[in-house]
Design a protein that fits this description.
Elements (H helix, E strand, L loop, with lengths): L1 E5 L2 H18 L4 E4 L6 H12 L9 E4 L1 E3 L10 H13 L6 E2 L8 H14 L5 E4 L21 E4 L2 H7 L12 E4 L2 H5 L4 E5 L5 H9 L17 E6 L9 H9 L11
Parallel strand pairs: 1-10, 2-3, 2-6, 3-5, 6-9, 9-10
Antiparallel strand pairs: 4-8, 7-8
Helix pairs in contact: 1-2, 2-3
The structure holds 2-amino-2-deoxy-6-O-phosphono-alpha-D-glucopyranose.
Length: about 260
């Protein structure tokens, strides 16, 4: 795993955007996995700035969102369909026809999950999956003890996740109880993973993800099983890591021709 520690949230966004922009430059019709939540917002803004000034063209890029709340109308401002449209599709100039979000409004969520898996496969798989991390170590909405083999399916949100996300809703009671999310197995199938995290509130989950055992109690520890995973974090999110000096040593001594992610 590549662990890149930068000073602050703005630097996380810039570094992550640079990596994503490089991938799109190399493959203009790349399939991008996109995350919701606050963590990637700065990254999307940094990518949008590149699109605006003509350095980046995302018009041929396809996107697959990680997850969606169950039972919210698709037009609800906090439905991920709407969040992705607002924060990704429009500012990055993506073709809406190439942007996919799991259908949390489906009456049969199991069938919707299978359909989503088929759509990802038909697109040729995800080239680069952008991820955030929940305070309890979740990625997508794969809550603790999700199977590492899981595929897109319905999950029940953990109380902590509902409390964390209540800030986006009028009250805690308005936060859905269920969701549909790509599984850990689905996420691990992406050709490259890029996780961003900022702030002290993520420090414990980040330490468990990078330096803890591979265990589903911390779903993000699944990244240790991926051959091409990069984690970009600020100092606060890195504050519980034991090997900070080593990660910085590695970054200081990057061979110029080195492949982007260290295995
Ligand atoms: C959310 C999303 C995740 C996200 C995580 C952290 O609920 N389903 O994809 O990474 O929880 O959210 P935030 O970035 O707002 O801290």
């Amino acid at each position: 795993m590549d662990v890149i520690i930068v000073e602050d949230a703005a630097a996380v966004a810039e570094r992550a955007a640079a990596q994503i922009a490089a991938r799109i430059a190399a493959k203009p019709n790349a399939v991008l996995g996109v995350a919701t939540g606050s963590s990637p917002v700065g990254t999307y803004e940094a990518l949008a700035a590149r699109v605006r000034d003509g350095r980046l063209d995302c018009s041929a890029v396809s996107a697959f969102a990680l997850d969606e709340y169950a039972g919210l109308p698709l037009t609800h401002p906090e439905a991920y369909h709407e969040v992705i449209r607002r924060t990704v599709t429009e500012p990055l100039g993506l073709d809406p026809a190439r942007v996919n979000v799991p259908d949390g409004s489906a009456s049969d969520l199991a069938a919707a999950g299978e359909d989503y898996e088929r759509r990802i496969a038909a697109a040729g798989g995800v080239d680069l999956q952008l991820l955030g991390i929940g305070a309890n170590g979740h990625i997508g909405f794969n809550e603790p003890c999700s199977s590492f083999a899981s595929r897109t399916r319905m999950k029940t949100l953990a109380p902590q996740t509902r409390e964390d996300n209540a800030r986006f809703f009028a009250s805690l009671d308005d936060v859905p109880l269920h969701c549909i999310t790509q599984g850990l197995g689905t996420i691990l199938d992406a050709r490259e993973l890029l996780l961003v995290a900022q702030g002290e509130g993520k420090a414990e989950a980040v330490a468990a993800m990078i330096e803890g055992p591979v265990a589903s109690i911390c779903p993000a520890s699944a990244l240790q099983l991926h051959a091409r995973a990069t984690v970009i974090i600020d100092r606060a999110a890195a504050s519980r890591l034991r090997l900070v000096d080593y990660y910085e040593h590695v970054q200081r001594h990057q061979p110029a021709n080195r492949i982007p992610a260290e295995v």
